[in-house]
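User: I'm curious whether this sequence folds into something compact or stays loose and floppy. Could you predict its structure so I can see for myself?
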Amino acid sequence: MTTPLHQAAGPACAAATCSRGLRDEELANRQLLCTPCVHLIGVWLQVELPRQVVVLEASRQRETTGASTGGRTAYRTAPLPGRDDTLNLLGPAAWTDVHDPHGDQHGPLPITGVLIPWARTICDARRWDPPALTPQALGAWLARPSVLDWAARQPWAGDLRDELHELMRTVRAVTRLRPQRRPVPQPCPRCEDLALVETDHQLYIECGTCQSMYTRDELALAARLHLAGLEERSSATA
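Assistant: Here's the prediction. I'll summarize afterward.
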């Protein structure tokens, strides 16, 4: 079985929102982000974000609140044509930098406003054609293995991971839709605690005690080896 991913590896992952260390194979690949972070970015952008956008699109309509006057709803100010938190996230963004000298812009950046600068940075450096300026197209483009592999080796790789982490937190706070976590009924191969947890769409299963991380194939192999060991000891004592 391959060596589990855990904190006691090499230099720290460049992301402030990650506490893991880099393994030898990651250092050999000149990565500044650990492989679980690279995979997680791909999950956020290619799997979760499109589903979140569907929920956001369905949540555009503002909920009716306020005092009713003669069958009509009274507002202190003129209502927006939809929910402002949702409209902010789904709003458009320009490919080039936009300045706001009068401070007219407020609220969280649109999803495209977070993704476009990273796509532009990569396109300018690699001379690649840009994707369409929609959340789904930008996310799918940034999640391409060739893009993520290159991005994971850049000085700003940690900032990319941290910004996308904050974006997903903001989106989930609006949609109330979060990946589900479930316990795995198997002891951790490293510390033997029953503390393994799997999360929707993620490649690695993590131990809450020792922070080791395993793929499902690694855990299946560990279970077979454990069972073989038990059978061998049972035969020896028979």
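Summary: Strands lie at 67-69, 72-74, 181-183, 196-199, 205-207, 213-214. The first helix runs from residue 24 to 28.
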